[in-house]
Amino acid sequence: MFEMQGDVFRLRATSMEGLQYMELIPKEKQPVTGTEGAYYRRRQLMHQLPIYDQDPSRCRGLLENEVKVMEEFVKQYKNDALGVGEVALPGQGGLPKEEGKQQEKPEGMETTAPTTNGSIGDPSKEYFCEFCKGAAPADSPVVYSDRAGYNKQWHPTCFVCVKCSEPLVDLIYFWKDGAPWCGRHYCESLRPRCSGCDEIIFSEDYQRVEDLAWHRKHFVCEGCEQQLSGRAYIVTKGQLLCPTCSKSKRS
User: Fold this and answer.
1) Any idea which architecture 206-249 has in CATH?
2) Would you say the pTM of this structure is higher than 0.85?
3) pLDDT of residue 7
4) What kind of architecture, by CATH, is found in domain 1-93+124-195?
């Protein structure tokens, strides 16, 4: 469904519907080389799909038993949740692609358009977006998710993470509880993420404060870096501080 090229994912295939899809994305988010849209896409890739959520070798300091737990975690989400949205006209999701619909991408386009299907849906039938419930015109591309079933479709700008409401970069989604999630928030919904190193925690021994979590070794003051396990600490706006550093920041 998707492939790794360098440090980013690239979707395969392009078509007329894929190009129409690109035009429906806000101009400032269109991934054209050298534009803010291209930088936005790269930032979203790194944020929504951290490499250390996918590859144990890119994590820092995993113990041997934790590597095995992470490998099983990744294997399971690939089998159970991971998918790439499909662009097609309403009513055409899941149909075989028509031959001869391939088309070169416009000059400067950083990413190819998502996998698409080519013929027009039943013009007598009404289609509606799963997210906003608005009408989906029969001649305008929508996004399908095979894990959701092809009776559901989304406007291109409505295919967003249910947790953060951000557009799903390159249409890469994780299906859970009847909705698409970005990779970051899907992983966080299953296991805690360390506020110190940003990696998923695979140890059962970690520090939690309200809705935040840390590896034990990362539970340190962000000001002076002293270990805070068993000591007084203050969490302010997600920042972990010892009382001395907290006081100096207020003064």
Assistant:
1) Ribbon (2.10)
2) no
3) 34
4) Ribbon (2.10)
